[in-house]
Amino acid sequence: MSFKIDYPQRRSIRLKGYDYSSPGAYFVTVCTRDRLPLFGKVENIEIILTPIGGIVEAFWRLIPRHFEGVSLDVYVVMPNHLHGVIVLSGEGRGEALAEGVSRLNQEETANASPLHPPGSENPPSTRRNPQGTQRGSLGAIIQNFKSVSTRKVNQLRGTHGVSLWQRNYYEHIIRDNN
């Protein structure tokens, strides 16, 4: 006797066939888990950030330092979510900047065997991570932002492993009139 369990399939909310590492501007919304108002409160039409909200804002502003060819435009941290515009220039395709680490590793591991031998079918620049997010894509940038901000907030609160963010994120591709 065999049983087949039909698990619900996650449906992608991304535009089918669109390359999210393409140059362009993207309006992004990222929400807290269970929409909890962890980031601040609105008083007199102004947001007063909590320490957690301050951490989230700081890590958002650091995105261009960690990803080549990425800049930020306007953003706002709200009590339970963040809206922001991320611009990918196409230079570097949003690749994580690891020049310093790479140089250090080359010095310390000069005699080590390579992870990817010459002629390897999957050079590092074309691989996907285990979750399937394409390197240098908007998804990889948001994934990194959510991960590092969650770790820092959990460190502050002493809540190791607790999710800060809702699964996924919302985005709109900002297009011009052409």
Salient structural properties:
alpha+beta; two-stranded antiparallel sheet; Alpha-Beta Plaits; 4 helices; about 180 residues
Blueprint (SSEs and pairs):
Blueprint: E1 24-31, E2 40-43, E3 46-49, H1 51-61, H2 63-66, E4 70-77, E5 81-88, H3 99-108, H4 138-157, E6 170-174
Antiparallel strand pairs: 1-5, 1-6, 2-3, 4-5
CATH architecture field of one domain: 2-Layer Sandwich
Query: What is the third-level CATH name, the topology of one domain?
Result: Alpha-Beta Plaits
> Span between N and C termini?
60 Å
Rounded to an integer in angstroms, the radius of gyration calculated over CA atoms is 19 Å
Q: What structural class do the secondary elements suggest?
A: alpha+beta
What is the CATH class designation of one domain? Alpha Beta
- Count of distinct strands: 6
Sequence stretches where pLDDT stays below 50 over 5 or more residues: 99-116, 122-128
Number of helices: 4
Strand order of the largest sheet: 4-5-1-6
CATH homologous superfamily label of one domain: Transposase IS200-like
How much helix, percentage-wise, in residues?
A: 25-40%
General shape: globular
What percent strand? 15-25%
Overall pLDDT confidence: 81
Give the helices and strands as they follow along the chain: EEEHHEEHHE
Major sheet summary line: 4 strands, antiparallel
